[in-house]
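ok trying again, last paste got cut off:
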Amino acid sequence: MIIIRDAKKEEIPFIREQRVRAYEDHVAKIPQGHWQELKKAIQSEADTDPSVDLIVAETNGKLVGSVALFPSKMDAYDGKIDELDYPEIRMLAVAREARGKGAAKSLINECMKRAKAKGYQSIGLHTGEFMHDARMLYENLGFARVPEYDFVPAEDGIKVLAFRLSL
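nice, full thing came through this time. structure:
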């Protein structure tokens, strides 16, 4: 059984380490400079802002994944895109051994539930164009591309793709 809950402050260092391990799967697909930008973003302390919901998935007492739900109008990407008028799912990460068992979907569903409860009509996210499994998950959940919010974080031509879902 997957338990979805708010992260505890003392879990944050582990969550950040788990994120890096999860995203390391993509190192071979991208240039080193892009990996450094991505690593910096997923280790950012932006998830400790009081307006950000840091949510974890727990199975058998063990943290198996996490996600950060950023509020609307927050500059989650250091000025690389305009501020959005809907919340943004960020830094979704699931441990390798827990993948394919529903943790990512449960975390995303929790973000959607929280955004809807706060009165939002939609929710968004960004993901690397090389993150094929993540993109497939988002599309299967009904997220649609919004290319006007795509951006290139490093000078390597690799796009970060924008998605949005109506709630």
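cool. Strands lie at 2-6, 53-59, 62-70, 88-94, 122-128, 144-145, 160-166. The chain has a mean pLDDT of 92.
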